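hey
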């Protein structure tokens, strides 16, 4: 680039929308883009790859979007998904709202048709007012119309995604933006590297003192760690706080492993007792939403006078379900740093309380042990998952992706995690279909082996991405828990006409889907076969699908959340 260049110089002292978009993303630390090509972003994807961004090209935008969402969770940087207009954009929206619901930073970038045609509804190729549609479904949404605004547009998207409570951002890029030409030096000056995108937010000292008062006056305190605490990536500090406090803790699904699940203070195996009998509950990056029964009901020992301490970066989260006696609004690292500074002469909770939880947990673990050792054929969930538990115990760095109903609920409680952010699942909404996108991003972002434990229904939502796994040669082992159905494979149509809505083709050969693309496919009928196949897959790092045949009659309706199904007063015939 020279000072004398002009916008008409054909020799390359020009830049354009394509390159400004790429430069702005790179300047802000974006390394990978999850993508499906097509008009008007095909060349943008090609140029991204040529300019050194890693471009992972998917078979469906939902999966590319889910990959971007989980990349955001794993890295604390916005995961980027790039799609075409209208249908591709709409396909990406479920993942964008999923990211927002889960408080993960993500940017959905979609190409769009020309404003002058869209706004007059003249009927353009893939015409749609995408910005208007995205707005209510994400944290922020922007459209960039001029090349000189690309720097600002991307800076705003990055900051909106990661600051405060993280979430999904939509960025609309009309086709005509990409070809707009600018002088390269002038263009470079328009780019913005976001400074301190997720600034520390300290709570007031008075709020910290109040929280310590409430906690220290409790007789039966309990800590609940949520995925916000895992996201915060201050793992050593979380551990130091929990250990200094001596308080028993529970981990929400994706917070498992933040402290190792075999930690002496882990109350996971005594969850019912801990929730029911505690008198004070401290939430760290966990919401009192449906996953915690809104803090009420039998499970919580209602009527209860429990006092809550709640750390969250979003002040609106306080009192959302229960009165919060001590709100700590700030980021977890800052809050815990201040709490620890005030815990000088801390005394551990009553040994009767911690002892009761430890005893109950030990008894439950012992009771479960025998079921996990079974070698039944056909396999049940316990026999199959007992073996996978031992595989994960030997591979603490492997990442577990998990979706399904019974497959999800049993795997969550059976398989211990010993390191943070190793368990990736369906999140706050319980979305089926996150599986392959999540597995791909986990492998791409971390380089670690991934084992995706998938209900056969769940797998079906994103199964075509096994081709993507093979194409990029990713170390992903998909284990399909094949019970030939949703919850069970035994339902029938009372009229005798069709298959029941919850059943699939009996013992479908999902393993052939992987061999079709050059990966390894295995059928496992016994726990021994299953364990051996998964160990071999991890050792080889070769794309593998293990079709684990599960007894179709052993699952329960909706796994552990059957109580959420509405009931009909009309008797079943
Ligand atoms: P879980 O499903 O594991 O219970 P949730 O997704 O319900 O977790 O809650 C995560 C919470 O963590 C959200 O309310 C979010 O605002 C909060 N959060 C995310 N990052 C941070 C952070 N760095 N500091 C404080 N709170 C955070
Ligand atoms: N669609 C979407 C996007 N998300 C959902 N959660 C559902 C539908 C409903 N659903 C569940 O909540 S679990 C599930 C569905 C379809 C599948 C359960 O069957 P599975 O697992 O084979 O994956 P199990 O082991 O047979 O229970
Ligand atoms: Mg199933």
């Amino acid at each position: 680039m020279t000072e004398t260049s002009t916008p008409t110089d054909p020799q390359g002292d020009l830049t354009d929308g394509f390159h400004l978009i790429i430069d702005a993303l790179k300047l802000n630390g974006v390394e990978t883009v999850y993508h499906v090509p097509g008009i008007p972003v095909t060349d943008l994807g090609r140029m991204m790859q040529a300019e050194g961004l890693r471009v992972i090209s998917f078979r469906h935008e939902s999966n590319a979007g889910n990959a971007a969402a989980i990349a955001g969770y794993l890295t604390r940087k916005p995961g980027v998904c790039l799609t075409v207009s209208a249908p591709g954009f709409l396909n990406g929206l479920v993942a964008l709202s999923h990211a927002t619901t889960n408080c993960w930073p993500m940017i959905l970038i979609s190409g769009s048709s020309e404003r002058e045609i869209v706004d007059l509804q003249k009927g353009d190729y893939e015409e749609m007012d995408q910005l208007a549609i995205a707005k209510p479904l994400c944290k922020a949404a922007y459209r960039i119309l001029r090349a000189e605004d690309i720097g600002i547009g991307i800076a705003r998207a990055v900051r909106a995604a990661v600051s405060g409570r993280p979430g999904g951002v939509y960025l609309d890029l009309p086709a005509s933006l990409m070809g707009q030409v600018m002088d390269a030096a002038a263009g470079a000056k328009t780019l913005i590297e976001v400074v301190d995108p997720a600034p520390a937010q300290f709570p007031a000292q008075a709020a910290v003192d109040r929280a310590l008062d409430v906690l220290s006056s409790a007789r039966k305190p309990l800590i609940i760690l949520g995925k916000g605490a895992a996201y915060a990536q201050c793992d050593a500090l979380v551990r130091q706080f929990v250990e200094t406090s001596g308080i028993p803790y529970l981990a929400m699904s994706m917070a498992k492993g933040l402290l190792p699940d075999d930690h002496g203070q882990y109350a996971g195996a005594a969850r019912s007792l801990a929730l029911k009998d505690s008198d004070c509950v401290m939430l760290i990056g966990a919401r009192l939403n449906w996953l915690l029964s809104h803090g009420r009901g039998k499970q919580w020992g209602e009527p209860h006078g429990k006092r809550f301490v709640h750390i969250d970066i979003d002040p609106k989260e306080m009192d959302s379900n229960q009165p919060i006696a001590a709100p700590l609004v700030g980021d977890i690292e800052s809050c815990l740093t201040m709490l620890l500074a005030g815990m000088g002469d801390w005394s551990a909770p009553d040994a009767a309380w911690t002892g009761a939880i430890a005893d109950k947990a030990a008894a439950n673990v012992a009771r479960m042990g025998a079921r996990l050792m079974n070698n039944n054929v056909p396999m049940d969930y316990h026999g199959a998952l007992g073996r996978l538990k031992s595989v994960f115990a030997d591979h603490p760095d492997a990442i577990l992706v998990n979706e399904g109903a019974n497959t999800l609920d049993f795997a969550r409680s059976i398989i211990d995690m010993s390191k943070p952010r190793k368990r990736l699942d369906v999140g706050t909404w319980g979305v089926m279909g996150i599986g392959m996108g999540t597995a791909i991003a986990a492998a791409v972002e971390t380089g670690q082996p991934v084992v995706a434990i998938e209900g056969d229904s769940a797998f079906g939502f994103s199964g075509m991405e096994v081709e993507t796994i093979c194409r990029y040669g990713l170390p992903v082992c998909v284990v399909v828990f094949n019970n030939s159905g949703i919850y069970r494979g035994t339902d029938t149509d009372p009229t005798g006409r069709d298959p029941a809505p919850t059943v699939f083709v009996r013992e479908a050969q999902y393993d052939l889907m992987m061999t079709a693309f050059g990966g390894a496919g295995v059928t496992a009928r016994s726990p021994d076969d299953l364990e051996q196949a998964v160990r071999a897959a991890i050792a080889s790092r070769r794309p593998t699908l293990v079709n684990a045949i599960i007894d179709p009659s052993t699952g329960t309706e909706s796994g552990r959340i059957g109580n959420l199904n509405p009931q009909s007063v009309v008797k079943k015939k």
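The two ends are 79 Å apart (CA to CA). Residues 102-103, 165, 226-228, 231-232, 252, 254-255, 285-287, 289, 291, 311-314, 317, 331-332, 428 surround adenosine-5'-diphosphate (ligand 1) (CB under 6 Å).
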